[in-house]
Design a protein that fits this description.
With 247 residues, the protein is α+β, with helices and mostly antiparallel strands. Among the domains are: 83 residues, 434 Repressor (Amino-terminal Domain) (Orthogonal Bundle); 79 residues, Immunoglobulin-like (Sandwich). It has seven helices and nine strands. Helix 1 runs parallel beside helix 4 and helix 4 packs antiparallel against helix 5.
Amino acid sequence: MSIGSELTAARERAGMTIEQLSAATRIRSGLLTAMEADDFSRCGGNFYARGHIRSIARVVKADPDALLAKYDETHPAVDTGRREERLNQKSPALHPARPRWTLVVGAILVCLMGWGMIRLFTLPSDIEANASKSTPTVAVTPSIKPTVAKTTTKPPVKPVKPAATKLKVTLTGSKDGAYVTLRDYHGLKLFQGLLGPGSSQTVIYPGSIRVTLGSLTNITLKINDKPATLKFKRFLITPTGTIQKSK
């Protein structure tokens, strides 16, 4: 019986599956299946194969010495001379020498620290030397400017303008009435309309008033509540209450 058959029989006597044995020994299930099929090439050598056999024997309660003896019958140990020959065939890789940056950086830091210590101990003497060469400073007393008293001037008193004289004009219609237009001196319309019999219109304006009448006989006029005689259909009433004929 081969070593693979011995491993299969030992596992079955323990009542374990490949997956259970893999979980107990931490050996891949694929590798266990190959070992039970007498394929130990995936173990990586006799050393690892013998270690796997010991782990399996410990879990399935089998005699590891008997299993290892069966393995050694079919898988003799590799001659150490051949192993050394394979190792000698691999020539060591030569790597170009690289600068040791750690040493370079360390040397730079040491130089900087030394320079700092030199400046630290020589700084007082440098200050004294520079102080002796410096030009003496001359104290300058700022001149005191005479204070000039500010004279406050009162703003000129503005003359009080007399209150503008307001002109009051009252027109009253009689008989058939008449059409009336009242404007200021600049022509702005103050009143315009038909005054029927008994109706009146009063305009109070601080300035001259231009009056245009449709009829002289159907309108009566009062200036500042005083009756006035109508002589013209178009006339100007000044703020003083006088009547001037308009063109």
